[in-house]
Amino acid sequence: MRYKFLSLILLHCSICIAQDICFPIGGRVAQAIDRIDVLSEQSSIHTSVQPYTRTQLSEVHLDDNNTFTESLLNEELVLFQLNSTPETLIENTLEMEFVDSTNTFYTYGKTKIVESKRNLPKKGPAIFGHFYKQKGAFYKLDTEYLKMTFDPILNIKFGDDRRSEEFIFQNTRGIEIQGIIDDKVYFYTSLIENQGRFQSHIERRIARYQSIPGFGSFKPFSSSVIDRARGWDFPNSQAYVGFNMSKHIGIELGHGRHFIGNGYQSLLLSDYANNYFYLKFSTKVWKLHYQNIFAETNPISAQENPGDNLLDKKYFASHYLSIKPRENIEIGLFETVVFSRQNQFELQYLNPIILYRTVEFFLDSPDNVLIGLNAKWNLWQRFSIYGQLILDEFKLNELRESSGWWANKYGFQAGIKYINALNIKKLDLQAEFNLVRPYTYGHRDAIPNFPNTSIANYSHQNQPLAHPLGANFREIIGIARYKPWSSLFIQSKAMYAIYGDSTDGLHWGNDILIPNQNRVMEFGNEIGQGVSNTVVSISMDISYEFFHDYYFDLHLMYRNQDSEDDLYDIKTNYIGCGIRANIENLKLDY
User: Which tens digits make up the pLDDT trace of 193-211?
Assistant: First the structure.
């Protein structure tokens, strides 16, 4: 019975919106879920599958007796502060009270939830009588069959790089709408308009790949108010509609991104590229979480396709099966295939439970299949060890002989998280190592009229669908997150990477867009070959929440890229600040 009460409360998170409306990938809620997953003795959530959904929160918190442990109560308070409906009446104690939109009153005792009947607390005055009647929702529509919320999106940032004469800024405005119909069909959309200019290393990437990371297409922008404000105009939107076909199976259709893994980066599927059109099936039963994604992407950027001409299409289909043999262990098997057909999806890849290598063999196809492994092990309610393995192609004999054969294409990730490090509450540390061999994620056949771009590489609009560095690199990441009090968030990050770039028409395996047919040599290939680049980056982000999901931000970054070719040297000393509402900051490291 207590489990039903818990599920009901969590179901009504964010104004009782929906069963499966998602939290932002890697955002503050996702970080809180990760913390609880490590700290809890019992957690059935599969943390390698993001974005997390509202109903997944009901799987994080229970112990053997379907009750809360006292050590988790403060973490629970954090989660509820991140959402909209529950109003915390007593904070920083072991007893908390909440009321949901059905006017049912709940109390957290020291180890359990109970339902109680009492007079409901009075709510604060709404702005102009209509807005923010409930904390966390700018405007709410609540009828018997339709529940919706409307929230503004804002991200205004200004900064200065002492190494650059350009004015760095971002001006993002938009709206977020989410809701549920008949308690069965959920929907979400965010529409945003952006103008901005980025740090030098991002601007160089935009010039090279003709695509803005996370956004894709753009056009030039020049402010009529601020002379120095010259950059790019790049609109974007995310939208999806979903339906839970049964208690364990859901289907979702929309434009968005996904992330598979437990690390800061993912070698399987990341959220680095811009939104793509997808159909997703999620099946959760027993200790299994099985996800199928069928997506339509583009092999080139819109900037390379001038005029009102339809972009070419390519597709990917992926399976990811996650199993939790024990509550603190998670193992996932990943498979994806990237392919192109003339204006059609390869229908045989719609089979949700077949191995794609088998289908590829049936078709005698030129498609690109990747397989992978993800694993996580939580220890002592304090540590989480995780890792990934991605295999593109390889021959065991060549691997044993260490011949450096070009088609031994694989990647490896290893990482550890330390929660409440050194017994300091809300201090979390993370260390991660990533390695990817040359030519991984690439493919052989070139696009007609684009001889320097392969058609079945693992990308979307010239942006990698896995790690932003592509291939042919090693990387070490260190992250510290600290929340000294409920409204202040501090994150510090240090990164060190070595990668080998292509030059003078020679393809050394870093750029996954270039056809592998253009490789330099068959054997003797090593990580970092080509034009060697060393990147050192240290950054700090400080965010102060002055109202629910409204922040003042301060950004500091030092970044140095040292290349064998002096033309590619870049040094950044950046400081910026801004105000942000209902949106997460992008990860723009490379």
Answer: 999 999 989 999 999 999 9
